[in-house]
Amino acid sequence: MGIMITPIKSGGLDAITDVAGVEVGHFTDPRRPTGCSVVLVRGGAVAGVDVRGAAPGTRETDLLDPCNAVDTVHAILLSGGSAWGLDAAAGVMRWLEGQGIGLQVGTARVPIVPAAVLFDLLVGDDAIRPDAQAGFEACEAASSRPPAQGNVGAGAGAAIGKMFGMDHAMKGGIGSASVTVDGVTVGALVACNALGDVLDPDTGALIAGARTPDGAGLRDTRRSLLRGEPPQPILAGTNTTIGVIATDTTVTKVQARRLSMAGHDGLARCINPAHTLSDGDTLFALGTGMTKRTPGMTVLSVMAAEAVARATVRAVRAAHSVQAGATWLPGLSGDVPGEA
After folding, report:
1. Which of 332, 213, 220 has the alpha carbon at shortest distance from 272?
2. CA–CA gap between residue 199 and residue 316 (Å, rounded)
3. Is 300 in a helix, a strand, or coil?
4. What is the DSSP-derived secondary structure letter of residue 10?
5. Which 3 state secondary structure label does DSSP give 215?
6. Are the C-beta atoms of 85 and 79 separated by less than 8 Å?
7. Distance between CA 178 and CA 198 in Å, rounded?
8. Residues 40-88: pLDDT tens digits?
9. DSSP character for 20?
10. Which stretches in the chain have pLDDT values below 50?
């Protein structure tokens, strides 16, 4: 007997910007493949975070602990450039301050901007990293339109399938998706720079990742490791998938934390291996409170995992091939338009 699969209902844009109150902007550095992406919530949002990778690079994640006092954030930054990329958050703060957005502290307003970074320093000139101006320009570009995907923003220098060396890796990127149930929407924006391969979460089929020695096919990292094939020595933190989950319903800080945790289920469905010692996998979750409807936390958690999985796959499917110095990273969308 055949099994009928019912299509999953997305929001109108099928992107995180389907969530009321959310805007996304990218800055992509023209000098080499790197950049940053900002998720703006001008009206503020309750937020949570969950870090699963063993080599994270983050900023202001402690304040998202449900035990701590601050309960509103105004933006989340995702950036390339490894720890250097955290500088871009200062530019996001400067832009928000200029808009009069922030936590009122006496006569001052302090924008709350948690951030996470991924490692892309092996792609092109590692002296070029996102800085405060990059964060500012990402905010200037932000809108509620569907965000660009693939080789843009925090996904510009992303690569996947690096277990057997960069010579056999493929291009990663940034992607977005949304899911709507009973009038409530959950969306995700994910920059995929995973050490592991990327799979179709519905079928388990390999989509992209470590290539065979001749470069013509996919190696299948999981099976290769289980056969006893040794990985190349890997520097800690030279990978990492980072992202933001957002919903238009009202959540507490505890519930936002639970949504960020559930989002990692989505990563585990489509990245193998995920959450390794060399990844700093980090997911944030936001609740804008623009609707009072809610399907309950169980359904919201399923929606979060689904949106993250779909956004991760889209990040890779939208990625174009990149030649940066001696590094060649083939992408599923072929060569960058206009380049040889």
Report:
1. 220
2. 10
3. helix
4. P
5. coil
6. yes
7. 19
8. 999 999 999 999 989 999 999 999 999 999 989 999 999 999 999 999 9
9. T
10. 1-5, 337-340
* Amino acid symbol at 192: C
In DSSP notation, 242-255 reads EEEEEESS---HHH
CB 115 within 8 A of CB 36: no
Domain boundaries, the chain: 16-327
Q: What is the spatial distance between Cα 209 and Cα 26, in angstroms, rounded to a whole number?
A: 25
* Count of beta carbons in the 10 Å neighbourhood of residue 75: 30
Closest-CA residue to 208 (of 331, 44, 25) = 331
Residue carrying structure tokens 């609740």: 287
pTM for this structure?
0.95
Tens-digit pLDDT profile for residues 163-186: 999 999 999 999 999 999 999 999
Q: What is the DSSP letter of 230?
A: P
Rounded to whole angstroms, the Cα distance separating 122 from 195 reads 13
Q: How many angstroms separate the CA atoms of 81 and 310, rounded?
A: 25
Joined tokens for residue 67: 């035990």
Q: Determine contact, residues 59/86, Cβ cutoff 8 Å.
A: yes
Q: Which residues pair with 58 in a beta bridge?
A: 116
Task: Report d(CA 224, CA 140) in Å as an integer.
Answer: 45
Residue 228, judged by CB atoms within 10 A of its CB (0-12, 13-18, 19+), counts as: exposed
Residue 321 buriedness (CB in 10 A; 0-12 / 13-18 / 19+): middle
Are 163 and 195 in contact by the 8 Å Cβ rule? The answer is yes
SS3 104: strand
The radius of gyration computed from the CA coordinates of the chain, to the nearest angstrom, equals 19
The runs of H, that is alpha helices, within 82-155 are: 88-98, 132-140
Q: Which two tokens stand for residue 322?
A: 């990149």
Spatial separation of the C-alpha atoms in residues 76 and 28, rounded to whole Å: 17
Q: What amino acid occupies position 288?
A: T
Q: H-helix or E-strand containing 110? A: strand 108-110
Domain 16-327: give its CATH code.
3.60.70.12
Give which of 65, 25, 34 is closest to 47, Cα–Cα: 65
Please give the helix or strand (H or E) that residue 283 lies within, else none.
Answer: strand 282-287
